[in-house]
Sequence to fold (168 residues):
Amino acid sequence: MERVWLALGSNLAEPLQQVDTALLALGSLPKTHMVMCSSYYRSRPLGPQNQPDYLNAVVALETALTPEELLAHIQFIELKQGRDRQIHRFGPRTLDLDILLFGTKIIATSRLTVPHYDMHNREFMLYPLEEIAPNLRLPNGTILVNLRRKIARNGLIFWDDTHRIRYW
Fold:
């Protein structure tokens, strides 16, 4: 089993419901079990600012799936929840699931880049990840806390007081 870290995000079609539904789907994946989920966060859109704020979280899984198998499953979950990949890359979306880390693997294929290619610049990935894995060391040896200290919160706040860290 490998420890995997996924980022979840939504800003359309009731984001809270979208993320909760995605967590249920992730918990039902074969050869996989949920470990923990960060608190839910509210973040400003990365792209065009004329869209709603995002609900973001990071989840830890243990899986025996290969990275490619996991990618296929999470893309199916996105599709099932109305994700349209034809929309502008940084446009609004019902659901976005990204593999941040897959154990200590470094993957660079035409379909998958792990660690996530831009997580070091995204507060909505780093802060929730640090919340549930404060001692995490990235595959290149970088300590997560040191990486997170270099990035501002950029308006990142908790979504509300009821959606805090959960363990399975």
Observations:
- The mean pLDDT is 95.
- Helices lie at 15-27, 67-80, 123-132, 144-148.
- Strands lie at 2-10, 32-37, 41-43, 54-63, 96-102, 107-108, 113-114, 157-158, 166-167.
- DSSP finds four helices and nine strands in the chain.
